[in-house]
Write a structure and sequence with these properties.
heterodimer; A: mainly alpha; about 75% helix; rod-shaped; B: Cytochrome C Oxidase, Chain A
């Protein structure tokens, strides 16, 4: 198993990972007209 | 590149042995164990993908329909591509990254070891989904077989049975695994480098993976969005890609190729990184143009992200759009050419020896360049109108991806096997493997250029009798090519089981931190960071 990381380094690693994860999620949401069309669907729904 | 090591502690921690039993692998957070699991996984997938390719080539041996029915043929074509791209090549490159990046940058492990474990174990789950997507139609009520090819274009992909849903979920799992692995690699490279190792001192393999990982983070989520929309169209009444509902199937093509084209560079760049170590080692010269190599990789990645629609010239884009995509695509040949010239300049007047990794490197320079040249032909719009969807395209991308990605990974396997196993591999057998592999590869794919130029379409089970001769040659080559990989398996198993003990630095010209640790690399390395001058 792995060795214990220095707590400060561990914090820095997690912070960098979270930033990269957020970038990935933002790319997914922005690159796809998913929400626009979902919105359209919601408007067109009968009733 | 970093070269001087002040201190290292490899070998001081052999008493911290690996845990025993299956738990060692299930719960592993050790980068070497996870790297090994990635590599074994990719080898299994290579053989599954290879088996489907051999059935395809056996079917195409003669005109007419002999071995499989058209639906199964289309299923096999889809399955072969997905297994090879997502099952074999990407995990193999990730396995090498796991094994080598911490060793190369002087880090004790990857930055986020538990995330590393998760990234790997998502893969077998994805592979199960992928294989289910292939076999589910054979069960009662399983629906129709997947006939879309790896591109999953609607409207066809909207009409396939439940197998497509398995495939969509496989894509989701593969995407999550890739993004998590990429995050881990980037964090390791940014935060875990040994003191003194500045970014521009990082080994080129690490640079190649840094660029690849960023590419993955930027394009895989787009594919995830695209296939999710496909899933919604299939089951939740949306019409993103359904023309009758106001949607547009071409939108999916754009989303797919926004991922699909950079994917080519995702597959190739790690191998370029491997070559950047193999060639200097066996030419006994430093890499020519380290900085330009880094620049070229960044240029390939950034230009590669904005030329996706050259896969879609025939859909009826405006003249301005096709001009833009054509010019952009041709411009990519400049940084790629720069990499090739750097490799040749590194070899120039070097004291070269041709051990198996170097043989693969030399073969890559020749065959990958050839694939690049047919790529320039395909980039030219009026010419592409003729070549599109023909066997010429099949020949082109196999000439790009087999040398550019797979041969590069083979070079890496032979280059690093002594470090991984502690034994030298059988050089004589490895050279036999190289020559059979290279020759049979060319016998398989070279004739396909002529078939395509003569008008044989791709992804069709049957063909006109006028194409018979070249198909016979291609199929014989294909079967030989497939079988040659059994020799690779034998060489690897033999090397793991024993052989001449490998020294810490088995290659005279090899440089870098990874060669400072003993062979095989101990379970824990660089617990005290080395200092790089």
């Amino acid at each position: 198993m792995n060795m214990q990381q220095d707590p400060q380094l561990r914090k820095k690693n997690i912070r960098t990972a979270v930033i990269l994860g957020v970038i990935a999620v933002v790319v997914m949401l922005l690159s796809v007209p998913f929400w626009i069309n979902l919105f359209k669907l919601a408007i067109d729904l009968p009733g | 590149m970093s070269s001087t090591v002040m201190d290292h502690d490899a070998g001081h921690h052999e008493h911290h042995g690996p845990p025993a039993g299956i738990g060692r692998w299930l719960f592993s957070t050790n980068h070497k164990d996870i790297g090994s699991m990635y590599l074994i996984f990719s080898l299994v997938m290579l053989f599954l993908g290879g088996a489907s390719a051999m059935v395809i080539r056996a079917e195409l041996f003669m005109p007419g329909i002999q071995l499989v029915d058209p639906d199964l043929y289309n299923n096999l074509v889809t399955n072969h591509a997905l297994l090879m791209i997502f099952g074999a090549v990407m995990p193999a490159a990730a396995g090498m990254a796991n094994w080598m990046i911490p060793l190369m940058v002087g880090a004790p492990d990857m930055a986020l070891p538990r995330l590393n474990n998760l990234s790997f174990w998502l893969l077998p789950a994805a592979a199960v989904m992928l294989i289910l997507s292939f076999v589910v139609p054979f069960f009662p009520g399983g629906g129709s077989q997947i006939n879309t090819g790896w591109t999953l274009y609607p409207p066809l992909s909207l009409q396939v049975g439940m197998a497509m849903d398995f495939l969509i979920f496989a894509f989701h799992l593969l995407g999550i695994s890739s993004v998590l692995a990429s995050i881990n690699i980037i964090v390791t490279l940014l935060n875990m480098r040994a003191p003194g190792m500045k970014m521009m001192k990082m080994p080129i393999f690490c640079w190649a993976w840094l660029v690849t990982a960023f590419l993955l983070i930027l394009v895989v989520p787009v594919l995830a969005g695209g296939v999710t929309m496909l899933l919604f169209d299939r089951h939740f009444g949306t019409s993103f890609f359904i023309a009758s509902g106001g949607g547009d199937p071409v939108l999916f093509q754009h989303l797919f190729w926004f991922f699909g084209h950079p994917e080519v560079y995702i597959l190739i760049l790690p191998s370029i990184g491997i070559l950047s170590h193999v060639i200097p080692t066996f030419a006994r010269k430093p890499l020519f143009g380290y900085h330009s190599m880094v620049g070229a990789m960044l240029a390939v990645a950034s230009i590669g992200m904005v030329v996706w629609a050259h896969h879609q010239y025939t859909i009826g884009m405006s003249l301005a759009a096709v001009n833009y995509f054509m010019i952009g695509t041709i411009i990519i040949s400049i940084p790629v050419g720069l990499m090739i010239f750097n490799f040749i300049a590194t070899m120039w007047r070097g004291s070269m020896t041709f051990e198996t990794p170097m043989l693969f490197a030399a073969a890559i320079i020749l065959t990958f360049t050839f694939g690049g040249l047919s790529g320039v032909m395909l980039a030219v719009v009026p010419a592409d109108m003729q070549y599109h969807d023909s066997m010429f395209v099949v020949a082109h991308f196999h000439y790009v991806l087999l040398p550019g990605a797979v041969f590069g990974l083979f070079a890496g396997v032979f280059y690093w096997l002594p470090k991984w196993t502690g034994h030298m591999y059988d050089e004589k057998l490895a050279k036999i493997f190289f020559w059979t592999n290279l020759i049979s590869f060319n016998i398989t794919f070279f004739p396909q250029h002529f078939l395509g130029l003569a008008g044989m379409p791709r992804r069709i089970i049957d063909y006109n009798v006028m194409f018979t001769e070249f198909n016979v040659v291609s199929s014989i080559g294909g079967i030989l090519f497939g079988l040659s990989h059994l020799l690779l398996l034998y060489i690897i198993v033999k090397c793991i089981r024993g052989g001449e003990p490998a020294p810490a630095r088995p290659w005279e010209g090899a440089e870098g931190l990874e060669w400072e640790v003993p062979s095989p690399a101990p379970f824990h390395t660089w617990e005290t960071a080395p200092e790089v001058k």
